[in-house]
C-alpha cells in the first residue's frame, strides 16, 4: 500500500531511514563492559577538569565507598570523552544500521589512513574530535581527506558527525571551519546554532557524548548532549537535514530498495545461467551485444525493485510532490490562450471581463497544476506562456533557466565532461550520440568553437582495424532555439542541431588497435579523440542517452526521405504555423 505523507520533512525522513544502512564510529577511548567497571559502577564527580596527559583524576564516590584515585591519560570528568560501545552498538542494530568501529591508539602512526579507508564508502561517519589525547589534527586531516576524495569522484552526499566530549561546541565548529577555509574549502556555511557546517552535498554536525551524573545540560551553541541510545536517531535526523530535495528523497528510497534486494538479485543471476550467456555471446555476430544485453537486464531488475514498491508514486506522485512547491513571494500572472470553461481548471483560471484570462501563479495554482498537469484540451497556453509558467516554480527567472538547463542535461546525457554527471574513469568510445568540440584560433587571436554530434551507428564503431571515418551533424550555438544544452567550462551552451544531410561532415579518427575502437585519450587537461595522423584533437563533451541518440538518428533519416512536391504555397504556409 502506498504511504501518504503529511509534509516534505516526513517524506524525506522516511526515505533517509530506507537508505542509511552503514556507519563507522571512530574513537580512541572505547568503554567496554570490562573497561568500565570503575567509571560506570558508581556515580563519580571529578575534582578537576584539567586535560593533561598522565594526570591523576581524583574521583568522589558515593558516601559508603572510600575515596578512589584512578591513574588515567585524561581525567574522567562530568564531560566524558569515552565512548560506551555496547549501548551504541545495540542502538544502531535496533535501527537496521550496521555500525563498524575503529579504535585508534596514540601509538598508531597511520590513524588517518586507516580511518579514511574505513569511512570512505559508508553512509555516515561518526568520529571523536580528539583521535589522539589532546590532539584534533587527525580528525581535521581525516575530514579534509574525505572531502577531497569526494571532489575527485564528482561529489556525493557526505554526513560527518563529530561526537565529542569537548565544550563549547561552537568553538570547535569555528575551529574546523577556519581549518577547512585554509585548505581551500570556502563554500561551507555555519548552521544549527554554530554547531554545524553545511555545503550543498556535505553536512558536518557537532554533538556531545552524554554527561555523567544527574545534572541536565541545556542544549545550545555550547553543548548538545546525545545519549548513546539516541545517537542513531540523531544521525538519521542530520542526514535528513542534508538530503533536502524531493528528487533526492526519491533517489534515496529507490537505492534503499535496490540494497534490500541485492542478495535476491544475486540469486537471480545464478551460476547455471553462465552457459546460456556464453551461448548467446558465441552465437551472434557482435559478441559485445551480449555484454550490453546483460547490463540492460541487471538495470531492469533494479527498476523492478523500485517499481514493485511504488516508490515513484509514493514520493513523486500527486499526493506528495505538492509539498515541494515553493511559489514566489510575488506571484506573477500567466496568460491563458484558451479555456473551455470546464470544471477541471475552474479554481485556478481567472476570467476578468474585457481582459485576457490568466492564472495567478500562487501556491494554490502551482500545487494544483503539479497534481493534475496541464491538459491542452481543456486549458491551452502559448509556448512562451508555458515557459513562463514553468519559471514560476523557482525564485527568479535566472534561477529557473539555470536549473531547467541542468535538469535537461540530466535527461539528455549518460555522462558529461563538465557537470554533475560523472564522465567515468575508463576511456569512452566514439559512437553515435557523442558530442565533441574543437577550438581554432584565427590570425587575429580570436577563438572559434565548433560542436559536432556523432551519428555513427554503434555496430560501425566497433571491431575497427584502421583509421575510420565517422559522420557528424553540425550544430550552431543558439540561445533562443536549441535542441541540446551542454556544459563547458562552467557555462551552459545551447546548441541547435543541423539535421540536413547535405551539411553533414566526415572525419577520420585514429583507432586503438587493442580495443578496436576510437577511444578517448588525455591531452593536457582535456580528454578527447585524435583524428587520423593525430593532426586534430576533438574534446569529449557529453554522451547522449541511447534513446535520445536514436531520436536524433530517426530525425536525420527522415530528412533523407524528404520528397520534393509542387503544390499550393498558401497551403504549405498555412500548415507551418507557430500557433499550432
UniProtKB/TrEMBL annotation:
One of the Pfam families matching this protein, by short name: Response_reg_2
InterPro entries assigned: REC
Domain (Response receiver): residue spans on this chain: 19-194
Top-level division of the source organism's lineage: Bacteria
Protein name: Response receiver domain-containing protein
